[in-house]
From TrEMBL:
Protein name listed in UniProt: Potassium-transporting ATPase KdpC subunit
Biological role stated in the UniProt entry: Part of the high-affinity ATP-driven potassium transport (or Kdp) system, which catalyzes the hydrolysis of ATP coupled with the electrogenic transport of potassium into the cytoplasm. This subunit acts as a catalytic chaperone that increases the ATP-binding affinity of the ATP-hydrolyzing subunit KdpB by the formation of a transient KdpB/KdpC/ATP ternary complex.
Gene of this entry: kdpC
Membrane topology of the entry: Single-pass membrane protein
Assembly behavior: The system is composed of three essential subunits: KdpA, KdpB and KdpC.
Provenance organism: Acetobacterium fimetarium
Family named by the database record: Belongs to the KdpC family.
């Protein structure tokens, strides 16, 4: 029994110390730093708008996609949870259905549909689309809202992120922010 306890005691102490250190202290410190340094991001980058009575209303997160299907709005990537191979028959059928949907939805637009409008993202909740995908939709949105194409493009440009340091990543348009701006809410 003494031999077992001699082996178990250091293991239990190590377990308790590591649990306290990595399960309590470290997360508390990191959360505290995040709340001080980046409070908006640490709390989900929630977008709020002022209502008519002066109260703030939470609309959504800038980091999680929301589905828009009206011709008045910028439409993001399709939602989907299955990450299928590009050569998978199900993936090909889904892409063909989405292409048909786009041509039926905006019959006046005969341009090539950007890939990110017919394929899901790896996260299935990507809030952004490419500038090309946004540009593809400008004429429809302008027509549906009785705006000029230039007005719509200016709003899209305002919510387009650029490459980090000029070379890292790809430019992206935040769909929710553009749609809120189109409605005059932000």
């Amino acid at each position: 029994m003494k031999k077992i306890w001699a082996v178990l005691r250091p293991a239990l102490w190590c377990f308790m110390i590591m649990t306290l250190l990595l399960g309590v202290i470290y997360p508390t410190v990191i959360t505290g730093i995040a709340q001080i340094a980046f409070p908006k991001q640490a709390n989900g980058s929630i977008i709020t708008v002022s209502s008519h009575d002066g109260t703030e209303k939470e609309i959504g997160s800038a980091f999680i996609a929301q589905e828009f299907t009206s011709s008045r709005y910028l439409i993001g990537r399709p939602f989907g949870t299955a990450n299928l191979s590009p050569v998978n028959d199900e993936q090909n059928k889904a892409v063909q259905q989405r292409i048909k949907w786009w041509y039926d939805f905006d019959a006046e637009n005969s341009a090539v549909i950007p890939l990110d409008l017919v394929t899901t993202s790896g996260t299935a909740a990507d809030p952004n689309i490419s500038p090309e995908a946004a540009d593809y939709q400008v004429t429809r949105i302008a027509r549906a809202r009785n705006m000029t194409e230039n007005e719509v493009k200016q709003i899209i440009s305002r919510y387009t992120s650029r490459r980090l340091l000029g070379f890292w990543g790809e430019p992206a348009v935040n769909v929710l922010k553009v749609n809120l701006a189109l409605d005059g809410l932000i």
